[in-house]
Every structure is written in C-alpha cells, then in structure tokens.
Amino acid sequence: MTRRIGVLLSGRGSNFEALAESCAAGRIPDAEIALVVSNREGAPGIDRARARGIPTRVIPSKGLERETYDRQVAAALDEARVELVCLAGYMRLLSPFFVARFSGRILNIHPSLLPAFPGLEAQRQALEHGVKWSGCTVHFVDENLDAGPIILQAAVAVRDDDTVETLSARILAEEHRIYTEAVRMVLEGSYRIAGRRVLSAAAGR
Ligand code: GAR
Predict the structure, then answer these.
(1) Is 0.85 topped by the overall pTM?
(2) Could you tell me the CATH superfamily of domain 1-103?
(3) Where are the domains of the chain?
(4) What is d(CA 34, CA 182) in angstroms, rounded to the nearest whole number?
(5) Can 176 be counted among the known catalytic residues?
C-alpha cells in the first residue's frame, strides 16, 4: 500500500518539493505526499504543492493557543490518513500534544550540524561563529527545539568567501539529498533507536 506522508511548511517549500520529486521518481518507494499544511497564507510552498496537484490546507495560527492550533493540524493529517509527518521549513514549535500524537513519526530538517546552531538563521549563526564545517541534519522531533535523535547529517565546508546566501545554497542541496534518504530509511523501518542514537537495523546484532 502507498505510504502517506504529510508535510508541514511555512515558506518556500524546496524541501517539500524535493520529497515530492523523490516519491514520484521512486527514490522513496511506494510513498506519496498526501497533504501539505501551511500555517501561513501565501506560503510559496503551498503554490508549489497545488501546481503538483497535491492536496493542501492553509490553517492560520494567528491568535490560537499552541495546542488548540496543533489539534486542528493533527485532525487534518488524520483525515488525510498520514502516517509520517515531515517538517520542511515549518517555523513553529510543536506542542507536547502533537509530538505525543505522532510519536516517533515526525521528522525535521535543520540547516546546521546539530546540536550546533539550533533555532533561526542557523547558516548565519555558523558563519558568524567562524566554523569551518557546517551542514544539515535530519532528526526525529521531540518536545525540544531541534533536539531529537539524529537520523542523518551531511557536512558542508565553509569557504573564506562564503556569504549567508552562498553557504545556504550549498547546504540546501545536501538537505534535499539527505531528507529523501532519511524518509526512505524511516518508512522502510531499517533503523533502531538506542538511547539518542539512530542505528542501522542490523548494527550491533
Ligand atoms: C531549510 O533550509 C530548512 O532546513 C530550514 O528552513 C529552510 C526551509 O526551506 N528549517 C529550519 O531552519 C528549521 N529550524 P524550504 O522551505 O525551501 O524547504
């Protein structure tokens, strides 16, 4: 049966589009993006989803208490029979309710080598700190910001002439690649969790 993925986004939607492409091309086998949800009216990612004929929902968060909002999002995901939730530039913290509701089934992509530089503008933080390597991380989501068990990372060398824009662009190409890999791995179930470590299912047996 086709596995159903829900994507939550707030902006551009390039990671969403990379996942949609990977489903269509079979790099994520037997899966589809069943629903794209945005908290922001006018998010370009919503237009990209519509152009692909993927169902979308805009659920504005303004004025709503976090859990009240998250219950609406969870209901939309349930209605679409989503089994895996992928955050793709979703600029909201999730409530404990939501994290528990989809426990172990929420992934996030972040543009740094976590635990370095969580939060906003990770690429700017990395550049300003002066690191020589940055990159990106796909991790399971828990109640804390950019903090759950790490599934995959990719490193990107920082060049002397990098700006936030040039560094972000090279990291983004890696984001698209490892998000696909991580989603495939999680849907296949080819991993096991030991403490904070996400290991290959075969490792240590
Ligand atoms: C990506 O770089 C993603 O890693 C980042 O937002 C961008 C969204 O781009 N997410 C975070 O910073 C989350 N803490 P996209 O809308 O083109 O996928």
Answers:
(1) yes
(2) Formyl transferase, N-terminal domain (3.40.50.170)
(3) 1-103, 109-205
(4) 18
(5) no
Mutational test site, ligand 1, from 110, 156, 180, max ligand atoms within 8 Å of CB:
110
Ligand 1 atom nearest residue 109's Cα: 4
Q: Which fold has domain 109-205?
A: Rossmann fold (3.40.50)
pLDDT digits (tens, 9 = 90+) for 118-142: 999 999 999 999 999 999 999 999 9
Beta strands in the chain (DSSP E): 3-9, 31-38, 56-58, 84-87, 106-110, 133-140, 150-157, 191-194, 197-200
pLDDT of 68-113, one tens digit each?
A: 999 999 999 999 999 999 999 999 999 999 999 999 999 999 999 9
3-state secondary structure of 51: helix
User: Which of 107, 171, 175 best tests ligand 1's pocket when mutated (most atoms within 8 Å of CB)?
Assistant: 175
Tokens at 78, concatenated = 């349930």
CA angle 28, 33, 39 (to 5 degrees): 135
Establish whether domains 1-103 and 109-205 are of one fold: yes
